[in-house]
Write a structure and sequence with these properties.
Enolase-like, domain 1, 26% strand, alpha+beta
Length: 85
């Protein structure tokens, strides 16, 4: 299992980290952001298929920002899956 940490841009959370084995994600953590939402996302995704998480979260928008904590997590997972992170 490998740990990934990404700095975010244009959202409340400043950083996101997660563990990824070949198929599933674990220990999603947000630095900053809305605790109610980010903690819920972390709990809901624990052990989830990384590909499924990307499908669910990519493109979610926060208040017209064009991105969100969930969207940036999805983009980071996608990059990690493609070995681009």
């Amino acid at each position: 299992m490998k740990k990934y940490t990404v700095d975010t841009h244009g959202i409340c959370a400043k950083q996101i980290s997660f563990l990824l084995n070949k198929e599933n994600i674990y220990n999603v953590e947000f630095v900053g952001g809305c605790p109610g939402n980010t903690v819920a996302i972390s709990k809901l995704l624990e052990g989830t298929s990384a590909k499924r998480a990307v499908e669910l979260l990519k493109g979610n928008d926060c208040d017209g920002k064009g991105t969100s904590c969930a969207d940036q997590l999805a983009c980071a997972i996608e990059k990690a899956l493609n070995n681009n992170l």
